[in-house]
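Input.
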Amino acid sequence: MCLGIPGRVVGMVPGFGDQLALVEVEGAARRVNIGLLDEPPQAGQWVLIHMGFAVETTDAAGAGQAMSGLELMGRARDPGEQVE
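Output.
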């Protein structure tokens, strides 16, 4: 699995060479380029997004793991934690 923001595909955006999808990320709809994927994703399918591009398809469990990893990276360190 790569580092990416998980989102659920809502549908395709007409035009643009059939390479744009509307993807819901944490309640916000975003246009995402799907040209890097081998197959276009279907509505309801999860994708991992990096820099506006869907780079990998995944399932709900994989999307949850990706979001957990992102949340973990955003947490502050404990004040007493040593960095080695």
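The mean pLDDT is 88.
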